[in-house]
Every structure is written in C-alpha cells, then in structure tokens.
Amino acid sequence: MLRFLLPSALFLALPASLAAQAVVAQMGDVELPASEISEIIASMQSGGESLPVQDPEALDKFVRALVVQRFVLEKALAEEHDKDPAVAASLRRTRDAAITESYLRKISNPPADYPSKEEVAVAYTENKAALLVPKAWHLAQIYVAKTTPFSPPSGLAQRLFRSLPQKANS
What we know:
Elements: E1 2-4, H1 16-21, E2 23-27, E3 30-33, H2 34-46, H3 56-78, H4 85-107, H5 117-126, H6 128-131, H7 156-169
Antiparallel strand pairs: 1-2, 2-3
C-alpha cells in the first residue's frame, strides 16, 4: 500500500536538515526520502528536463510514480531479474547508448563566442555570390477561347495580349 507520510510539495519548503531526513512516501519496505527526491529533481533539471515543482499535483504524481517504480525495482532485484542474460544484455546496450549520447551532447556544444562577428563577416564576403537569391520569374498562361467564326481578339483580351511583351521585360 502506498502511503504519503509528508505532502510531496511540503518537503521542498522544509529546512535542509529536516528535508534530508524526512520520508515523503513509502510503499511496502521501500521508502522515498525527501533528499533523494530533491537530488532526482535537480539532476533532471540540469539535464534539460522540465519538472513543474511549483505545481503540487504534478509533483505528487511524480513522487507516486517514483515510489511505485522503486517498489517494482526492489522486487525485480530481489528475484535477481537483472541476472537474466537477455536483461543483462539489454542493460549493457542501454548503458552504452546513454554514455554515447551524453558524450556526443557534451562535445557537440560549440563555445558561446563561436562564431565571432569577424568570422561571420569574412564568411559572408567570401560567399556573397552564393548567398544571393537568383532572379525569379512568375510564368502564367492566359487562355482565350476561340469564337466561331474566327475574329481577332477585341476589348479586354486584346489589351491583355498587347501588354504581355511589356510585362515580360519588366
């Protein structure tokens, strides 16, 4: 049975000495201390994930999910589920992927001052011709229905027909 010993939003307001010792939630033998929740929230926020810690309902849902996850994890470890060869291989692949992704994220961030204004100006002047947008034309077709018997176009159609060369040159 899941028990909340301390409202999850309240532990954030406790002094640090009390918050570290306070147990926020308990399910079976699994206890979730406030210090651990604070560490998890801090690591998630530093990793770029957003957690609405100011919203008590969202924080409550997060803590509930976390304590259920810990309960299931403890049960799986007690039954040595992690020793299963398929699970061990999956854990290795997941660990390797997480390390690779983290490393690539770390090395792919350029310095804050890159590129400098001078480098941008030089690149622009060197590639000015390639950066210009070429001249474009909009082509359209005008359909004038043939009348029976044939007679040269008159009125509006004739004025449009005569203005085509002028529009094409502009």
